[in-house]
Amino acid sequence: MLLDDFNNTIDKWLTDLQRYDLDKLRTKPDTAGWSMGQLYMHLIEETTWYLEQIEVCFISKVNPALTMKENAKPIFYNNSFPNEIIKGDPFISDHVKQPTDWKTVQADFQKLKEEVNEIWLKIETAESPGKAEHPGLGFFSPVEWFQYAEMHMQHHLKQKERIHNFLSTKTAQ
């Protein structure tokens, strides 16, 4: 079920990408916010890092007894981030790149989907993997990293809708 959810979420992002040309992808609703393209780039970069953490779990096999922090447990129990705008690290936010071209964003997202499906096969067959540490939420197993990655993409759908609404009103003017 986790893999199906993840594939459905990625497919939604890929389908919605068709709505935007490069100019729209690069248009920011305000100086402090991200463009739609930056949002896509953020998801590609972060999800890639989450998948790398899953690989760390397979390679190192350390920390198997360590757990996620208490503040992470409701996120996993509810299978979603809190319904609020989460202020991220300003350094990261300020350094999310604008896309250079539309086809690269599409290709990178499609590649991400392939990597997600490949790593799921490893998760299903892994023997006694370790855990890798999330910077603020404690230690995650491969399945927990996988779930976290999908929840992260789901969480950003609300942000995508806000940016889309801005782009729609800009186009209508």
From TrEMBL:
InterPro entries documented for this protein: DinB-like, DinB/YfiT-like
Pfam families: DinB_2
Domain of life: Bacteria
Segments forming a coiled coil: none
Residue ranges of domain DinB-like in the record: 17-159
Name of the protein described by the UniProt record: DinB family protein
